[in-house]
């Protein structure tokens, strides 16, 4: 029986794009800071990381699709917070589905680090507060999946 898993060491010569929504920037900046710190801690040199800002979470899937062939892994970060209208449901669902469809191609890791929260307080808690930093978690997942995909390519 064979067993495969990724590691948390950034692969040499790998390139990662972090796509970040500017909307709710006080939250998304904290997610980005967590992701960048974690990537650096795992051995990624600054030259291996590009940060791409988009207006809002809705623009993440299209941007990820456009960049998909240029990078070894993509990390998507955003914060969609429920309001008084159904807009939240449309945006959160569209972003999740768009990122999922790209990730499901299985060619390279596309990590979903978009918060979908009921309140700003929930988002703040997940962007460096008491619930940790989901940007950091997304970066860890990206490196682990990147190394797993590399291990699977030799299987």
From TrEMBL:
Keyword Lipid metabolism: no
Top-level taxon of origin: Bacteria
Pfam families named among the record's database cross-references: DMRL_synthase
Residues reported to bind (2S)-2-hydroxy-3-oxobutyl phosphate: 84-85, 126
Catalytic activity, as annotated: (2S)-2-hydroxy-3-oxobutyl phosphate + 5-amino-6-(D-ribitylamino)uracil = 6,7-dimethyl-8-(1-D-ribityl)lumazine + phosphate + 2 H2O + H(+)
MF terms in GO: 6,7-dimethyl-8-ribityllumazine synthase activity
Enzyme Commission code: 2.5.1.78
Residues annotated as the enzyme's active site: 87
Protein name per its UniProtKB record: 6,7-dimethyl-8-ribityllumazine synthase
Organism: Sulfobacillus harzensis
Taxonomic classification: Bacteria, Bacillati, Bacillota, Clostridia, Eubacteriales
Gene it is expressed from: ribH
